Amino acid sequence: MNTSIKSSGKYEILYVIGIIAISFSSIFVRWSDAEVSVIAMYRLYLTNLLMLPLLWKYRKEMFRLTGKQWGLLLFSGLMLALHLLLWMASLRLTTVASSTVILTLEPIIVMFGSFFLFGASINRGMIVGIGLALIGSIAIGSGDFTMSGKAATGDLLSMLGTVAIAVHVLAGKQLLSHLSAFVYNFWVFGIAGTALALYNVFNGFAFTGYSSREWGIFLLLAVVPTLFGHYLFNWLMKVISASAVSMAVLGEPVFASLLAWVLLKESLSALQLWAGALILCGVWIFIRYGKEAPSPKPKKLLATGRKGEVRQ
C-alpha cells in the first residue's frame, strides 16, 4: 500500500509510540554491564519468545517460503545482527547523543540504495540533504576525536552500524511486499539472535550467570525498543509509505538525548548540538524534497501462496 504521510493520520499515535520506544534502546544498553553481543542476543531471543503465542496463527505461512525468500531473510537477519553489534558497541565508547544522531543517516542511505535497487530518482534537494548530513556527521566525529580517540571509534562503529541497518531495511522492504510482518520479524529476529549466539560462543562469552537486574534489562530491550519499536515500524511499512517510516529515526536522537540527560546525567556539548541539528536538517531536506522510491515490483520467486496474492 502506497500512501502519503498526510493520509496516515490514524497511525500517528503508533508512529510516536515507535519513536519513543526505540529511543529507550540506548539507555537500556548503557544500564547493562553484559557484553553487547550477549545483550543483543537475548534481546532478540526474548522477543521471539514473546511472539510465540501468535505462532500458531501464522503456522502455514512460516515455512511456505521460496529459496530466494529464505536467502533474503538470512541476509536481512545477518545485517540486523551486525547493526546491533556495532551500534551497541558504539554506546560504550561515545555519547548517546553522538551515536543516535549518526543513526539519522539511515533514511539517506536507504533512499540512496533505492536509487540503485528500485530506480528511485535523485534530485538537487537530495544532494543538498546528503551533503549537510555528511558534514554534520564528520563534525561530530572530529569533535569527539579532540576529546577522546575512543569516542571517535564509537562514532565510526555507529556509522557502520547505520549502514548495516539500512541494508537490513532495503532487504525487508522487498520481503514485506510478500510476507506478513509477523513472519518476517520472527525469522529475522531468530536469525540475527542465532548469529549473535555463534559470535558469543566463538568469543567465549557466558550465556548464564547474569543477575536478575541484567535479565530485567534484556526483557526491557525485547519489549520496548524491539516489539514496540522495530516490530511496529516493520508493520507500519505495510500501511504507510516507507519514507514516512524511515523519518521516525529523526526523532530518536531528540528523545534519546533527553533521556540520557535525565537518566544518565550526560551533558550535551555545543558541537554535538550544532552538528546534530545540521544532520537533522540535511535528512529533513533529503526526505522533504526527494521523490519516494517506487515499491519493488513483485517477483514470482518471492511470491507466496496463490498467484497474484500478497500476504498481509
TrEMBL record:
Record localization: Endomembrane system
Source taxon at top rank: Bacteria
Membrane topology: Multi-pass membrane protein
Domain EamA: 12-140, 153-287
Keywords noted in UniProt: Membrane, Transmembrane, Transmembrane helix
Main localization (coarse): membrane
Membrane-spanning residues: 12-32, 38-58, 70-90, 96-118, 125-145, 151-170, 182-202, 214-233, 245-264, 270-290
Stored SUPFAM superfamilies: Multidrug resistance efflux transporter EmrE
Claim: Protease is one of the keywords in the record: no
Family the UniProt entry places it in: Belongs to the EamA transporter family.
Protein name: DMT family transporter
Species the sequence originates in: Paenibacillus puldeungensis
